[in-house]
Design goal:
It is built from twelve helices and eight strands. By secondary structure, it is an alpha/beta fold. The protein has an eight-stranded parallel β-sheet with strand order 2-1-8-7-6-5-4-3.
């Protein structure tokens, strides 16, 4: 059995230029920045990357660029959700050939499927692909994946090596861990719900795929390392620092606009995204931007008016001191 995927994997935002095209140069620089800041892996074509708003050809190019720029420094978990099982299998094989560690597949969306339908969908894919598969449970947008279905797939499909759960349901995560871990040492449990990162890690999750890690990778890494080191008190202090930032970025209605705003606070203009927004929404985003700027003052990467280099260096040193080596 291979080592399970672990740590904080960033579901990176997809940069776009003024014409709405994928900005490959900015994507490459953003990948380098995230790795330099200590993320444990990258997750292109996730919800934060707005995979549904790009064409299949664009999605493949996004993964190709991320894998190329990563150059083996960290593993890549590529979102591979397509409109049906056949196209998803083709995407999985394409990403596997590019060198990703695994793919993440959301349950069927739009049409709500039964547990049996969800099982059959993933079973068909798992039996056909040549790359490891992680299930992606996000019941807000897609058919939910029940604990029973996860246990069944983990038991029957060696290619299914983990689950990313964005439900925020801690008891369900614990039920999955208690039933699957005795059967599969290689099976990973990743949480996508930033507000419960510490509780999920303490309960036994291997790591997280957290949108906030694309904005404050230092903080999410420090949380993970603190839990690994057994310093739960410190981890909870950091969790309470993360919570208001997560809430502020999530509060902007058009996901993931709030996380693009967070990236801007860190000096990254990743473009406007691909969903049209009204003038009223622009005003709301501008107001939220100011709040997010305030929350992120201590994480700025360059001097700003009223903040000296010495103060910034002190803050960076404090954050880095919280990081624990694996």
């Amino acid at each position: 059995m291979s080592k399970p995927i672990s740590g904080i994997l960033t579901p990176n935002i997809t940069p776009v230029d003024r014409d709405g095209r994928v900005d490959e140069d900015t994507l490459r620089r953003y990948v380098d920045w995230l790795i330099e800041k200590g993320v444990d892996g990258l997750y292109p074509n996730g919800s934060t990357g707005e995979f549904i708003r790009f064409t299949a050809e664009e999605r493949r190019r996004i993964v190709e660029v991320v894998v190329d720029q990563t150059a083996g420094r960290v593993p890549v978990l590529a979102g591979a959700a397509e409109a049906n099982a056949k196209e998803t299998i083709a995407a999985c094989d394409a990403y596997g050939a590019m060198g990703v560690r695994a793919v993440a597949i959301v349950a069927p969306f739009y049409y709500r499927l039964s547990d049996q339908g969800v099982y059959a969908y993933f079973r068909e894919i798992a039996d056909a692909v040549s790359v490891d598969v992680t299930l992606y449970n996000i019941p807000l947008f897609a058919s939910p994946i029940s604990v029973e279905t996860v246990v069944r797939l983990a038991s029957e499909c060696p290619r299914v090596v983990g689950i990313k759960d964005s439900s925020g349901d801690l008891p369900n995560m614990m039920r999955m861990i208690s039933q699957i871990r005795p059967l599969r040492d290689d099976f990973c449990f990743l949480t996508g719900w930033d507000a419960a990162l510490v509780p999920m890690l303490v309960a036994g999750a291997n790591g997280g795929t957290n949108a906030t890690s694309g904005v404050v990778p230092e903080l999410t890494r420090a949380i993970h390392r603190s839990v690994v080191a057994g310093d739960i008190e410190q981890a909870m202090k950091l969790q309470y620092q993360l919570l208001p930032l997560f809430d502020a970025m999530l509060s902007i209605g058009e996901f993931p606009e709030g996380f693009r705003a967070g990236a801007r606070s860190r000096g990254w203009d990743l473009g406007p995204g691909r969903v049209p927004i009204s003038e009223r929404q622009r005003d709301a985003i501008a107001a939220a931007q100011r709040q997010i700027d305030d929350l992120l003052k201590e994480f700025v990467d360059a001097p700003t008016p009223g903040v000296s280099n010495q103060v910034i260096q002190k803050i960076v040193s404090q954050v880095m001191s919280q990081l624990k080596t694996p």
